Amino acid sequence: MHITNIGVNHWHDPDFFINRPGGSGDYLILLIKSRAVFTFPEGDVTAAPGNVVLYRQGTPQYYRADGERFGNDWFHFLPDSEEDLQFLKELDIACDRLLYPGNLSEPAKILEMLCHEYFFDHPHKAESIALMLRLFFIKLSEELHCSSRGRTGTNYEKIAALRIAIYNDPSREWSVPAIANALAMSPSSFQHTYKKYFGVSPVNDVIAARVERAKYLLSTTDHSIKQIAHICGYASDMHFVRQFGKFTGMRPTEFRNADKSGTDPYRVWST
After folding, report:
1. Which of 40, 116, 199, 218 is most buried, with most CB under 10 Å away?
2. In a 10 Å sphere around its CB, with 0-12 CB exposed, 13-18 middle and 19+ buried, how is residue 165 labelled?
3. How far is CA 124 from the centre of its chain?
């Protein structure tokens, strides 16, 4: 796939409208930032910020502002092969209708990166854009078909940022009451919301993050088990060994030995 035109954070006057009976000659995707009215064969549909429309090549395009400034991110693109068309088909993103993703933060960030790639030249520009386009549509499809609805708004953004911080720095003393207070939530509400978003409690996610960091250190360093326990935030190496075993089914030394022997540690555990 390749982009034919792109724009980010475009705002137009309240009298803005698009009237393209034959389409735009390519595919068009819109990430909508304001109220707007789209006209489809079944009639007018009012869009809201966070909605998306993907127009196929040749589809008539009729949309307009709805009494206020019209804002959107957008890009026109063309598939380069049948493989590209099959890729889009398998992602099951409906065309020529209003779409309601759970959260647009990731697709929007990728679109910003696409805009930067499009307007600046470098040796691998075409390859970068093609890869980013695929990632954009994968992330959009995930949001459209996500089973965990409700991942919207600043609440999700803050808790998602927290989860990234946990995995980047698992050794910190992550206290549920302190985190909940910082997010202006009760501890019970925070824990319920966290599990709803990510399918795991915050306490277990901290442990999982520490175990992931420990596995990396066991595979890439000669640090002792005691050192690794300390680096991963454990005051006691015995506590570390117990939690590591609970999450992986192996002791840290077993994991390290299996890794060094070239054996898949998880296969050793499963057998």
Report:
1. 218
2. middle
3. 24
Taking the whole predicted model, whether its pTM rises above 0.70 is answered as no
CATH code of 208's domain:
1.10.10.60
pLDDT in tens, 69-89: 999 999 999 999 999 999 999
Q: Does the structure show a pLDDT above 60 at 152? A: no
- Enumerate residues 6+ apart whose C-beta is below 8 A from 193: 155, 159, 185
pLDDT category at 198 given cuts 50, 70, 90 is: confident
Q: Among 145, 173, 206, give the residue marking a domain's end.
A: 145
**Could you tell me if 112 and 8 are in contact, meaning their C-beta atoms sit under 8 angstroms apart?**
yes
Q: Are residues 47 and 104 in the same domain?
A: yes
Could you tell me the residue range of the domain that residue 127 belongs to?
A: 2-145
| Dist CA 11 CA 6 (whole Å) | 14
38 in helix, strand or coil? strand
> CA 164 to CA 17: how far, in whole Å?
40
The answer to whether 232 and 240 have CB atoms below 8 angstroms apart is yes
Q: Are residues 73 and 169 in the same domain?
A: no
Number of domains in the chain: 2
Distance CA 95, CA 44 (A): 16
Q: Using the predicted structure, report yes or no on whether residue 111 has a pLDDT greater than 80.
A: yes
